Amino acid sequence: MQDNATEVTAAGIARLAGVGRAAVSNWRRRHADFPKPVGGTETSPSFALAEVEAWLRKQGKLAEVPLRERVWQQLAGHPEGPLPALVHTGCVLLLIHERPTVWLDASAGSDARLAAILSGALDQVLVPRLGGPAGPGGRAGRGARGAGVEPGPEGAGEKGASDAGGVHGGGVNAGGGAGGVNEGAHAGAVNAGARADRVNAGAGSPGVNAAVDAAGVNAGAEADRVNPALTTPAVNTSPTPSPVNTPPTLHTPHPVHAVPASPTAPASPTAPALRTPTGPQLLLSAPLLRGAAELAAEMGARQAFEFLLGRHLDANPRQYTLTPAELAGLMADLAGPARTVLDPACGTGALLRAVATRPDQELYAQDSAPELAAISALRLALHSRATVRAAAGDTLRADAYPGLRADVVLCHPPFNERNWGHDELAYDPRWEYGFPARTESELAWVQHALARLTDGGTAVLLMPPAAASRRSGRRIRADLLRRGALRAVVALPVGAAPPYNIPLHLWVLRRPDRAPATPEVLLVDTGRFAGEGRGGPDWEAVREAVTDAWGAFTRAGHLAERPGLARSVPVIDLLDDDVDLAPARHLPPAAVADGAEQLTRVRERLGATLRLTADLTPPPADPSPAARWPLTTIGELARGGALVMRTGGNGGHARVPVLTDHDVLAGTAPSGTLPESEEEAVLTEPGDVVVPVLGGGSVARVIDEATGGAVLGRNLVLLRPDRTALDPWFLAGFLRGTANNRQASSYASTATRLDVRRLQLPRLPLEEQRRYGDRFRALDAFERALRHASRLGEQLVRGMYDGLTDGTVAPG
Fold first, then answer.
1. Cβ neighbourhood burial of 552 (10 Å; 0-12, 13-18, 19+)
2. Which portions of this protein are annotated as coiled-coil regions (predicted)?
C-alpha cells in the first residue's frame, strides 16, 4: 500500500531515477505535468512520493521503484522524522522476526485495524525480549542486577518497581500500601514521565499527556524536592505519601525495561529505552511498516533493519560519532567472552553487537540520546537471542544500573566534555581512584566502567591520546597503576575512528580481585599500520599485532620487547612526576642496525624509478586543429548496452578488500572495508573503469589484474564496457578531460558531485579508439611512476632525518 503522505526531495527523485539533480530540475521546467511541491521550502521543495513514482513510470523513466528505495523514502519522509520512524519499524521487524503469524494476522485488514492490534501484539514481544518492569522486591530476571535495580530496604518491597518508573501495572498497582503506590507514581512521574515518553516513542497520546500535566507529574525541579538529600537512600523509599501521586486512571504506554535513576543524581533521571508505540503513533507509520514487512520478506528482518539504519547513518554522517566495525571487533576480542556485557555510552550498539554470542547472555546498554538507546535495543534484539536491557539517560549523572556487576564493559565515551557532572558528583562512590578534574571526563568514564565490573572483569575503552599524559589526570593514572587496574594501553593508527586525524588509544582495565596486582603494564603502538591517504589502517595487521601481544602478556604477565611495536613496562618505571602512558614514549624504536643499508636500498629504488619516469615522459605534443567529433554520453551508451553502469557501497558477505574513492584518487591498492550486508557487493574486473563522484577531480581508473576482484566502495561508479564497442583506456582517458568533468558536475556549498551519466565521449571507430587508448595508457604509466617516485622520495627524506637525529646515520 503506497503512502500518499510520504514526501521526497529532488535528491531522492534523482536517486529513484538514477540521474543527477540537474535532470530533475530540467524535468520540472520542461514538463507541465511534473508533480507540484507539497512541502519543504522554495529552494528545497518536497514532493509526494506516490505522485513522483507515477510520473516517472508514465514517462518511461522508471519501470518500478525498487522496494528498498521506496521503504527508505517512506522512512526518511516520515512526518515525525526518521528516528521515530526507525524505532517503529524496528519494533515491527522484531515482531516479524519473533512471531511472523501475529504480524500476518494484524496486517490482513485496514491500517486502522493494524494499528489497533499492533500495540498489544508488540507488547507480547518487546517485554520478553527487552525486559518488563521489575517485580516484587525490585528484582527482574536473575535478581536485582538483572534489571539494573537494587532491592529496596525492608518494608519497602516495591522500591525496584516504583523507582523503575512502573506507572503502568507493576509500579502503581503492585504496591500493597500507600507508600508503594505513591513511590510508583512519583518515580514514574519524575524518572519516566511524559516527556521521556514523547521522546522515546514519538508523539504521545494527547489523553495521556493531558492526564500527566493535570496531575503535576511534569513538575521538573519541584519533583526533585521530594529527594533533597543526594546521599540519603532512605529518601527514595520513604513511605510518606507523595504530592505528585498519579491518579489511578492514568495509563501510559507500557515501559519496556524501566530503570531507576542513580541515587547520586535524581535531577537527571533515566528513562526506559523503549516504550511500546501507541495505536495513533502506529497508524501514522502504517504504510512504512507494511513496506518494511515486504522488505523483511525479501531480505530478512535483521538485514532490513540494518539496511535502513545504515542508510540513515550514511545520510547524516555529521550527526553521529560511530565506532567502526573493525575497531568494535578488536575491543570485543581484547575483552574476551562474557555472559554479562555493559556499554554505558552505546550509541547505535556497535560495540555490544561485536560481542561473541553465548548462551544466557545479557547485554546492558545506556545512552543519553533516547532514540539511539531505543535503536540499540532493537538492533541487539534482532542480532542475537541475548537478553537485552537498555535505558536512556546521562550515564554519569543518572546511572541506570547501579547494582550491576558485569563481566565486561565496552565503551566509546564522548571526548573532552566539561559538563559531565563534576560539580554534582563530587562525593560519588564510583571515584575509587580519585575525583576527576573538570577537564578529565574520560577518567570519570574509566572509573564508572571499573565500578560496574565484577571482580576480575575486563573493561576496554576508546580514549583520546591526551588522557594518557595530561597533568590534571596524573594522580588517577598513578592510582590505576598502583592498584593493578590498568593493564594495557594500545595506540591505534591515525584514521582508526573519529576524529580520524588523531591516533586514539585503547585502555584495557581489570577490576582488581584478591590476586596480587600485576607489576607490569602492556604498551602497544600500532601507528606503523596506518593506511596511505584516507583509506584507513590495515585492520588485519592491527588486530593480529594487538591480540598477539595481549595474549602473550596475559599468559605470562610479561612481554618480551618487540622494538617499535610492544613491550611490558614495570609499573614503578611509569610512576614519575608525569605518569605518562603514551606508548610511543616508552617503546624502543624499530631495529635500526641496518638503517643505513635500508636507506641505500630506498635510494637505489628511487634512482631506478626516476630513470623510468624520464623514459616515460610524454614526447612533445604535436599541434592539431580542434577536432569536431559527434558526441554521445555515458547515459546513452548505458541505455544502448555498450557498457554496464554500477554503483558501489555494499559489503556483501565476502570479506575481501574494498576499493575506496581515496584509493582511486591516490592510485593505491584497495585499502578499505565495508560492513557486511545482505546486498550483493559489486566486484571489480580487469578492464572496468572506476570513477569517483565526489571531490571535483578529473579521475578515472582502469582496473588491472592486481586490483580485480576488489569490492567497489562508496562514492564510486563502475563502468564495464563491451570490448567489441568500447576500448577501456579510450573510455577512461576521455572521462578525465577537465571540460568534460566541469559540464557534468553539480555544485553545492561544500562539495562537488559528478553526474557520470552526463560525461561525454566522441563517437569513433574501435581502431581509432585503440590509438587514443594506447596514448592514454602510456600517460597512466607515467603518472604512476611519478607517484611511486614521490613516495620513495618521502621515505628517503624521512629516513635520513631519523637516521641523522638518532645517530644511526653519519653526517658525511
1. middle
2. none
CA nearest to 416, candidates 321, 315, 335: 321
- What pLDDT, on the 0 to 100 scale, is given for residue 146? 35
> Are the C-beta atoms of 668 and 535 separated by less than 8 Å?
yes
Q: Which of 354, 312, 359 is nearest to 339 (CA)?
A: 359
Residue-wise pLDDT for 197-237, tens only, equals 333 333 333 333 333 333 333 333 333 333 333 333 333 33
How far apart CA 114 and CA 127 sit, in angstroms, is: 20
How large is the angle between the packed helices 82-98 and 111-130, nearest 10 degrees? 80
3-state secondary structure of 86: helix
pLDDT digits (tens, 9 = 90+) for 735-748: 998 888 888 887 65
pLDDT digits (tens, 9 = 90+) for 759-796: 999 999 999 999 999 999 999 999 989 988 998 898 88
Residues 6+ apart with CB under 8 A from 133: 140, 161, 164, 165, 166, 168, 169, 170, 171, 255, 258
260, amino acid identity = P
Among the ranges given (262-266, 356-360, 636-640), the one the predictor scored with the smallest mean pLDDT: 262-266
Residue with cell 581502431: 767
- Residue 554's identity, in one-letter code, is T
Q: Which amino acid is at 300?
A: G
3-state per-residue secondary structure call for 442-469: HHHHHHHHHHCEEEEEEEEEEECHHHHC
- Rg over alpha carbons for the chain, rounded to the nearest Å, is 30
Closest CA to 202 of 325, 298, 78: 78
DSSP 211-269: HHHHTT---THHHHTTS--TT-GGGGG--SPPTTPPPTT---PPEES--PPPTT-TTS-
| Residue-level length of the chain | 812
In this predicted structure, which of 356-370, 461-475, 656-670 has the lowest mean pLDDT? 656-670
For 668, the grid coordinates are: 593505491
CA 382 remoteness from chain centre: 17
Bridge partners, 388 (sequence order): 363
Angle 67-76/301-315 helices, nearest 10 degrees? 60
Strand order in the sheet with 716-721: 643-647, 716-721, 689-692, 701-702
Distance CA 758, CA 445 (A): 52
